[in-house]
Design brief:
Blueprint: E1 2-6, H1 13-24, E2 28-30, H2 31-39, H3 43-50, H4 52-64, E3 72-75, H5 86-93, E4 94-99, H6 103-111, H7 126-144, E5 149-151, H8 155-169
Parallel strand pairs: 1-3, 1-4, 2-3, 4-5
Helix pairs in contact: 1-8, 3-4, 6-7
Bound molecules: shikimate-3-phosphate.
Length: about 170
């Protein structure tokens, strides 16, 4: 079974995903890191040199080359569910799990990370960052909310819920 972790930048898809996969004893992969590896460029370089449209095409292609009979937890990039028909596609080949955090929670987490590694957030801080999160999240939630599972809570609770979902549906 394929499991897709979806959610806004900073929601913890990579960090919590890694931990949950390890505890549930299934493989984990991070889409952004694999795209960077195959392009031999960082995300900021891909955005700057090739543009966002090109990056969205890479995400589209990546999803569609995943072997559907594998068992793996995949941390997707925050924009994946909201482009082309990726959300329908992920729902059709696996289980989607939305890490549903508030703009306030996302702001705290994002400010504690390396903003420069996320091209869409470049140069944004404090109120500008908060306003961006609020409006972008509102735009994306109709997609995120199509997930099979919507989870909320603190980190430990989120990890535990991901583990339970995997255990309940892994074959
Ligand atoms: C993006 C999220 C990023 C990365 C790219 C675009 C987005 O992934 O794919 O910078 O559109 O929300 P994370 O959600 O892992 O930060």
């Amino acid at each position: 079974m394929l499991f897709f972790l979806i959610g806004f930048m900073g929601s913890g898809k990579t960090l919590l995903g890694k931990e949950a996969a390890e505890k549930a004893d299934i493989p984990f992969c991070d889409m952004d890191r694999l795209i960077e590896k195959s392009e031999k460029k960082s995300l900021p370089e891909i955005f700057a040199e090739n543009g966002e449209t090109y990056f969205r095409q890479l995400e589209f292609d990546f999803l569609r080359q995943i072997p559907i009979n594998e068992t793996v937890l995949i941390a997707t990039g925050g924009g994946v569910p909201c482009h082309t028909n990726n959300m329908d596609y992920m729902n059709s080949i696996g289980k989607t799990i939305y890490i549903n955090l508030t703009p306030e929670q996302l702001q705290v987490r994002l400010e504690a990370t390396d903003i420069a590694s996320r091209p869409l957030l470049k140069g944004k801080r404090q109120k500008e960052l908060f306003d961006f999160i609020t409006s972008k999240l509102a735009e994306r939630e109709p997609f995120y909310k199509q997930a099979d599972y919507i989870i909320t809570g603190e980190d430990d609770e989120l990890t535990e819920q991901i583990i339970q979902i995997i255990k309940a549906s892994a074959i």
